[in-house]
Amino acid sequence: MLRGNIELWLATITCIFIGAGYGLISLWTREIPAAGELIGHTLGIIGFILMLMTEILYSIRKRSRRATLGRMSTWLRFHIYMGLVGPFMVLLHTSWKFNGLAGATTLLTVIIVFSGIIGRYIFTRIPRTLDGIEIEGALSQEALRRGRQFLALWHTVHIPIGMALFISAFIHIGGALYYATFLK
Ligand code: HEM
Ligand code: HEM
C-alpha cells in the first residue's frame, strides 16, 4: 500500500521523528509529558492546527474552480499527510489518558483516520475497475455500482465524523484551557 504513495512515506518518517523525540524526552525526564504542560500542550496545539488544516484546505480546493491553485491530487496528498501527522501528535498530547469528552474526541480522531485509510485504499482501486479491463460487461457494471455505493457510504462516515470531532475538540479545548490552564 505504501508503494507510490509518497505522502504515506513522509507521514511515517515524520511520525517516527516526532515519536523518537517524545521517547527521548520521556526517558530524560523519567515521566510521560503531561497533556497540560509545555511538551504535551505544544503537541496538542500543533497537532490540532494540522487537523484543522486537513479539514478545511482540501474542502476549499475541491470547491474552487481555479486550476492555478494546484492539482487536486496534490491537495489530497497534503490532506493525508496532515491527517496522519496531526492525529499522531494529538495522540501523544493525551498522555495516554482517555477520560470523558477528551477521550471521546480521541476516539473520533482514531475513527476518522482509519476511515480515511480505508477510503483511500478503495478510492484508488475504483478507477482501475472503471477501465473495465479487469472485469468485463455486466459484472463490471455491478462492480462499479457497488464501488459508488461504498464510496457514498464512506463519505457519510468520514465527513460527519470530522464535524462531530471538531465540535467536541473545541469544547474540550475551551474546558481544558479554562480549568487546567487559566485557573491554575
Ligand atoms: C483533537 C484534538 C485534541 C484531542 C483529541 C485531545 C485529547 C485530550 C485528552 C485525551 C486529554 C487527557 C484527558 C484526561 O486527563 O483524561 C487531554 C488533556 C488536555 N488537553 Fe487536549 N486534546 C486535543 C487538543 C487540545 C488542544 C488544541 C489544547 C490546547 C489548546 C488542549 C489542551 C489540553 C489540556 C490543557 C489538557 C490537560 C487537562 C488536565 O490536565 O486536566 N487539547 N486532551
Ligand atoms: C484529521 C483527520 C482528517 C479529517 C478531519 C478529514 C476530513 C475530511 C473531509 C472534511 C473531507 C471531505 C472533503 C470534501 O469533500 O469537501 C475528506 C475527504 C477525504 N479524506 Fe479525509 N480527513 C482526515 C484524514 C484523512 C486520512 C488520514 C486519509 C487517508 C489516509 C483521508 C482521506 C480522504 C479521502 C480519500 C477523501 C475523499 C476525497 C474526495 O472525495 O475528493 N482523510 N476528509
Helical/strand content category:
mainly alpha
Count of discrete structural domains: 2
Number of strands: 0
Number of helices: 5
The biggest sheet, with number of strands, parallel, antiparallel or mixed sense and barrel status, is: none
**What fraction of residues sit in β-strands?**
under 5%
The value of Rg in angstroms is 19 Å
- Indicate the mean pLDDT: 87
- Write the element-wise H/E pattern from the N-terminal end onward: HHHHH
Could you explain the architecture of this structure?
The chain has 184 residues and is mostly helical. The protein folds into two domains: 1-95; 98-184. The chain is 81% helix and 0% strand. The protein is built from five helices and no strands. It is globular and about 65 Å long. Residues 127-135 have low confidence and may be disordered. The site of one protoporphyrin IX containing FE (HEM) has 25 residues, from helix 2, helix 3, helix 4 and helix 5.
